[in-house]
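>> received
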Amino acid sequence: MLKKWKLRQKFTAILLGILIFGLGLIAIAMGFILRSDTQNQITSQALILMETMNSVREYTSSQVKPELIDKIEVEFLPETIPAYSAREVFEGLRQNNLEYRNFFYKEATLNPSNLRDRADQFETKIVERFISNPNLKEIADFRSVSGGQLFFIARPIQIKKESCLQCHSTPEKAPPSLVERYGTKNGYGWKLNEIVGAQIISVPAQKVVSQARQSFVGIMIIISGVFISVILLVNYLLNQNVIRPLKRIVRVAEEVSVGNLNADFDELRQDEIGSLAEAFGRMKLSLSMAMNRLSKVNRPNDSNH
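>> returned
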């Protein structure tokens, strides 16, 4: 089929093939780069918040709780619990800043004292993964919710201090005010070094992903425009420098073939087209000389006749 195509059509088809192949490779590369950049951006945001909450927990444990130790023995104060403080600080951040309204922080626990910390079905699966694989220190992934996509980072909550068991071993050993507040059914039976939950922070990914997609589309449009401009430019140069001169040579050759030896190949160029025109010019000259010799040979015969 290609043999029937004209030169311009062949070049256009080749360039379009290069365009499609090149755009495919660029799309794959750009997609990988933008996905990686998007995830890094979201991960960085989530890690900052995660470390901030860890700082709140550490501050509560090392600074707040020792100052209130005397009151704790008389009355349970949830503000002295690191998980409670971190959750309250984060909720305050969400309520006071609209840009953080769709951010979420939770210390999801399988058997918590405070039922608001109970792990839901999704969070339970994460905790179970940490339990089944104690060497797993972090899980990061995307999840789809009704409001769009969320990116979450989860880390295991492991009981590493004996002091944690004062409130979570048995109801008898727990402070009476804690039992009075939360009851005797939940939050007990914890053991040292046991993984009881997961610290999970979720950040909205829809906006960042949407921006990445817009960037991807914009980049692809620009690259496509450049490719198309190159194709048009190549076609124009091909037409001006190759196709039109060849058509003139073909037209002159056709005139010479029917006996018009006055037609001239006027392609005065130094490239291959000029060389072709010179070759046709020499051929025309040779043909003209041959015809002149032939006419001279035939004249005596005509006179004798």
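>> The mean pLDDT is 82.
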